[in-house]
Every structure is written in C-alpha cells, then in structure tokens.
Design brief:
Length: 150
C-alpha cells in the first residue's frame, strides 16, 4: 500500500500531504484515517503512546466520541526529505455542551511509500464561548486561509 505524495518532499508536496491529513481527519472516520499510517506506526498523542493501526483506530474512535462536532485546520510549519512539522487548531464540543479550541504541533515521519510511521503530537485545550468558533467544518475548495496567531 502507498499514499502519495511521497518523500522526498518539496514545498508543494509537503503542503499537499498536510492538506490530505486535514481532509482525512475531518471525515472523523477512524478506519479511513488509520490507512494513512504504517501497520506498525508509533504515536505519542499528549500523554498516550500508541503502537500500530489497531490502537490508532481505537484511540480515534474514543477521541471522536468525546470531541463532538470536531473540525480541524492544519498548516505546514517545516519539512525535510521524509519529515513534516505542522501546527493545527481544531474545535469541538463536549457532552455537556462546552465548546473548546485545541492548539497543537505535530511531527511526522514517513516511509518511502508515503505512509506515516511516526506521529508525535503536543496539544492544549482552551475553553471558548460558542460564538468564538470559527472552524465549523472542512475547508471549502481553494481555501488556504492561514491559522490565526492567538
């Protein structure tokens, strides 16, 4: 299995990879999202450490059960031949109706086949008023609006 674009990345292909990740995560489909990762992928997500696609699927299932009305934006931060760094923001609601914005950074490492073998994520959650939400769903085609600095 392969997942273009492939390393070594250029500015254009790194941006394509980031947008593909954003689009995939906005589906909120754990099985579909997990296919972008190697079978033996290794993750650190906040304080959780995951090994393999099955753990990724279980993690994402729990995540999107808790983080309702989830919508994400990612932005390329830096890249090398087979690594990409992104910053991101996503918004969601909890079961009690609270509204949140999550800010974070991710470091990714890819195989020659374009699958992510390693993902490290640092994330902070900030409560916001419902009227402060600005990420209401996937981007419209052609939208390249950068993330605001907040």
């Amino acid at each position: 299995m392969s997942r273009p674009p492939f390393p070594p990345f250029t500015p254009e292909t790194a941006r394509q990879k980031v947008q593909a990740a954003e689009d995939g995560w906005n589906t909120r489909d754990p099985g579909k999202v997990a296919l972008a990762y190697t079978e033996d992928t290794v993750w650190r997500n906040r304080d959780e450490f995951l090994h393999g696609r099955d753990e990724v699927v279980a993690f994402l299932t729990r995540k999107w059960e808790r983080e309702q009305d989830y919508a994400l934006r990612k932005e390329l931060w830096a890249f090398t031949d087979d690594r990409i760094a992104v910053r991101f923001q996503y918004e969601w609601q909890d079961a009690d109706g609270g509204t949140w914005r999550s800010y974070g950074n991710e470091n990714w490492e890819f195989t020659a086949e374009g699958l992510m073998r390693r993902r490290e994520a640092s994330i902070n959650d900030v409560p916001i008023a419902p009227e402060e939400r600005w990420i209401l769903g996937p981007r419209e085609d052609g939208d390249t609006t950068p993330l605001p600095l907040q």
